[in-house]
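Justification of computing resources. Each target in the renewal requires a structure prediction run like the one illustrated here; the chain below, 550 residues long, is used simply to show the kind of job we budget for.
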Amino acid sequence: MALLHSLRRSLRLDPSTLEARVAADDDRPAKQLLPTGPQVEIAASDPLLAYLQSSPGPVDLTSLELDSPAVRDLREAGVALVVPLISQGELIGTLNLGPRLSEQEYSTDDRRLLASLATQAAPAVRVAELVLERAGEIQARERLEQEMRVATLIQQQFLPHELPKLPDWQVAAYYGPARAVGGDFYDFIELPDGRIGIVVGDVTDKGVPAALIMARTQSVLRGEAPRFLSPGEVLRRANEILLPEMPARMFVTCLYLVLEPATGRVVYANAGHLPPYVRTADGVIELRATGMPLGLLPGMAYEEKEAVIDPRQSVLLYSDGVVEAHGPAGDMFGFPRLRALMAQERPGTELLNHLLEELHEFVGRGWDQEDDITLVALQRTGGGEHVLLGAGAEPVSAEAAERRVLLTLSLPGEPGNERIAMSQVAATVAPLDLPTARLERLKTAVSEAAMNAIEYGSQNDPAIPVEIEVWVTEDDLFVSVADRGLSGPIPDAEQPDLEAKLAGEQKPRGWGLFLIKHMVDAMEVVTDGAAQKVILTLHLRGVDDAGQPV
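Resulting structure tokens:
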């Protein structure tokens, strides 16, 4: 039997369904009594296709008068009788039989039996074909999902794991890809004499191709920035390196700014990116400089300018995913709205959180994010307060100066991202050399807490992020999982009682919190009405929650 697929339809002599002719030579090896005939191709225009489609039963090729190349090929292959397999009115295959060993004609009973067999075999063949197709689709989808998970993890490794420690400055950053991976990026590059390079870029595409170009661009900038303190020269060099590698119809917009934290002086160049906003006492201004995007044209020069950020002034670097986000009515968030929000005096983290809240309110629930969103905010405090902020994080007070932040991470609130949270936290704490058992317990707790935050706090909405922060003190490791609290306050962890839950006497939620609580040394739930956090603690010194040395 052979399956027929659209225009390419194959018919084979099947040794399990045909009677082979016995040659006159009785010494012929027995295995040749069941020959496997050559594959026969039937063209889409061959009249045999239509004939088999409309045939009520087996077709005798020996007496069939049809001008068909396929009929001639089948006869040459030794096929005498063809039984069509019809499923839901479609020809899906054939049973091909050679002449009977007795050299008698196929009888009416033979034909009736074959027709009955074909009626039963056709649905089975169809199901088998669909099962194989479905299995192939599932395998391909699983392979793609695995590749996307790997690409996501790779991209996360390219984004900064911690924000720079700048005395007298507040720094905050947010990254939200439109898909699992994206083309936006930001970076902080340490330079000589205490200066720091700040990069925000946008690849003109989304998904894996954009992520690959993003990674390459970031690598080039990291390599060139320490060699040339001039931002214009760094962008010029990056353009020449990326140009021969850039795929067709792709390029990178990029803003590169060099900051002297002690003086507030910034020198910057722009490769076709949106100009940063600076909030001053007299209003919001733009830091403008001209230059073509990277990877577009050879021999480009990039204008270089400088400015001074005074105490209490703020800088916002951003990508177009913010201003080009559309509301339910089709209108865009727009530059005027962003500029007005920037005019409000807010510290870095408060500014980003406020911008995101306004954006989410503008686009509404169920927003299908169209483009990646990147935000980097800096505020010069001038008061000597040391802060280290990420999107959604809290300021580090002078009293908590011993706290060292290892990771700030913002993830879209969609199912599956708990695996990214778990992997990123595990990679971040790897240098602490936690015992394997304690590390696995921490990973389980982080995954469960992130899953709860996504399902309940974000209600599986990718536009509502879940914030992860990891920090250490001399004695303890902390992991904070924060969400917007859309489902209301987090309930207290209960001792699970299956019968009580089935009887409705115990809330349906709470087992996840019970699991989390028993995976770490301490768990605290903090809420302020706008957001809520689950803070996990793992002791690095002393004893764990079971009284065992750590």
